[in-house]
């Protein structure tokens, strides 16, 4: 068996996991977990990337001997380096308000229809393309000589080598999903200098070795290679979906729900754009055809507003609340910013003429019903738009711990749900490293290994399908 360190950075915490892989075995353990707390400064909302890097070093020290290291994180955000390779300030958080009103400026140069046909990426106000447009007149961007996405920035600090991993690069809205290369025309029309980006890497490519200073600080013995993985955490998570065959949908759950299909080619139709589906790149040239849904962020923010009550008790209360009493649109940008989440959910219910939740259990049930309904809509539309029917839905990530959400999703979709693994991103990260070092086979083989070694739970659909159709119609009728 060999050991691989998976650095997996989420929006609220980071962790260093150690995967031990053999020909027919896969064990995952947590070496170190650390918080990821954004900081609001006078300029806006920023990531504490130095704190994250310190957490990575602490995790590698705790991990002990490893045969390789791989890093994945959330998408779209980046750090800027000067001519000496020094970081020009903490990276801006994607929930910062600097991109408000920027889309219209972009669309004046590249209309949204052309932008989608070229890049296949759904509109989201925080896409890297809009962030760069918002930063165009800043002194920081003027001084920048290199842009590194978050996992690539940490890889650079570990190795001294610069690269841009493709699965994460595809989320910038500057990559053509057909060529798997930069969309040079879009960048030129928007005045974005692609020379800011380091050369593209693909999952499995070598990304350098740990610097001598890192070895000294972590106590590791070199050489320790760093391997490019699916550095967008969703790409790593989808690589760990324990699917058999191709007729499956997936939902990567956590702060966000990413619901969709794995395809061989992008879907770039105008109907797909209007439905706000995205074509992000995955392992082995696949396309992650999916929709971003606000996810458990809605519940996380409510829990924070309520003073962090026991989640298990909230879910027990929610299970007693009548189903589909009130639902909200879990894709509504009104829920994107932090703060006052219970009030915003109440406002949405009131505006649509539905009962306003009063108890914490009612709010929790409203959120979970709304997420299940959003999962139903996304998976149903993805099948239709891609002409790709499915027989099962795989839920991976943190939401697998929420049995009520998994059961409601099975009921809403009218399909069996297989929940697990919970640490899908870390497992996908580990297996891409192991594959690069010859320990596991193809993508199907990776998935079979996950299915054999990780705990999975199956939920069969039940309940009233007509009630979900009625709730979907009710929500559609409430849309402006």
Short description:
The protein has 480 residues and is of the alpha+beta class.
Biggest sheet: strand arrangement: 17-18-16-15-19-20-21
Count of distinct strands:
21
As a percent range, the share of strand residues is 15-25%
Distance between the termini: 57 Å
Model regions low in confidence, pLDDT < 50 over at least 5 residues = none
* Number of H/I helices: 19
Structural class: alpha+beta
Please provide a written account of the structure:
With 480 residues, the protein is of the alpha+beta class. The chain contains 19 helices and 21 strands. The strands form 7 sheets. The protein has a 7-stranded mixed beta sheet with strand order 17-18-16-15-19-20-21, sandwiched between helices. The longest helix has 27 residues, at 360-386. It starts with a strand and ends with a helix. The relative contact order is 0.13. The mean pLDDT is 96.
